[in-house]
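Lab notebook, design round three. We kept the backbone fixed and only want residue identities now. Task for the bench partner: fill in a sequence for the structure below.
Input C-alpha cells:
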C-alpha cells in the first residue's frame, strides 16, 4: 500500500517533468478519470520513478510509465521508445478504455485485467473468485483504488495540482537529504 508521502513524491515528479499534462490529455481523450490513470501508473512504475534508465521494468517486460507488457502488446512495444511517455500513457489509457468496455463498465474487473489480462480475470470471476485473485500480489485493483483515493485527496477536486502539494514533501526530502549528507556533530 502506498503512503501519502510516496504518492506526493510521485505527483511532484510527474509535475516537474511535465508528464502530468500527458495524463490529463489521455484522460480526456479516452474518458478515463485522471486519478485512475495516475493510480495505475503509480502501482505500475511509481509514476516513472521505478523505471530502469532505459524506461523498462518487470525484468524488461514492462515498457514505460504505464508498464505495457511486451509479451502481450508486441506491436506497440516494438515500435515505441519506452521513454516516450506521451505514447505510453496514451496507449495505456486506450487499452484501459478498451477493457472497461470489454467488462461492460465494471471498473474493478477492468483494472484487475489491466494487470493480469482479461482471460485470467474472466476465468477467476466465472469460478466465483474475486478479480484480484489472479493479479500481482493478489491486490492489484484494491491497491489501485486506494492510490486513486490518495491522489484525489492530494490533488483535490480540480485536475490541477497546487504548489503547496509539492512544498512540504520537497522540503522534507531536502531537509532529510541535507542532514544525511551533513550529519550534525554533537
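Proposed sequence:
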Amino acid at each position: 500500500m502506498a503512503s501519502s508521502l510516496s504518492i506526493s513524491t510521485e505527483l511532484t515528479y510527474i509535475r516537474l517533468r511535465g508528464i502530468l499534462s500527458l495524463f490529463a490529455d489521455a484522460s480526456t481523450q479516452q474518458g478515463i478519470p485522471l486519478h485512475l490513470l495516475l493510480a495505475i501508473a503509480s502501482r505500475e512504475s511509481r509514476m516513472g520513478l521505478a523505471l530502469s534508465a532505459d524506461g523498462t521494468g518487470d525484468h524488461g517486460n514492462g515498457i514505460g510509465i504505464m508498464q505495457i507488457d511486451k509479451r502481450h502488446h508486441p506491436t506497440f512495444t516494438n515500435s515505441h521508445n519506452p521513454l516516450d511517455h506521451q505514447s505510453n500513457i496514451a496507449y495505456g489509457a486506450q487499452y484501459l478504455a478498451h477493457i472497461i468496455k470489454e467488462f461492460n463498465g465494471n471498473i474493478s474487473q477492468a483494472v484487475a485485467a489491466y494487470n493480469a489480462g482479461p482471460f485470467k480475470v474472466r476465468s477467476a470471476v466465472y469460478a466465483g473468485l474475486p478479480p484480484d485473485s489472479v493479479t500481482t500480489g493478489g491486490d492489484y485493483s484494491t491497491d489501485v483504488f486506494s492510490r486513486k483515493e490518495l491522489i484525489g485527496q492530494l490533488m483535490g477536486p480540480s485536475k490541477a495540482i497546487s504548489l503547496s502539494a509539492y512544498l512540504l514533501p520537497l522540503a522534507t526530502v531536502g531537509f532529510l537529504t541535507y542532514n544525511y549528507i551533513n550529519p550534525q556533530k554533537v
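Keep this in mind before ordering anything: Residues 4-181 form a domain with the Lysozyme fold (CATH 1.10.530.10).
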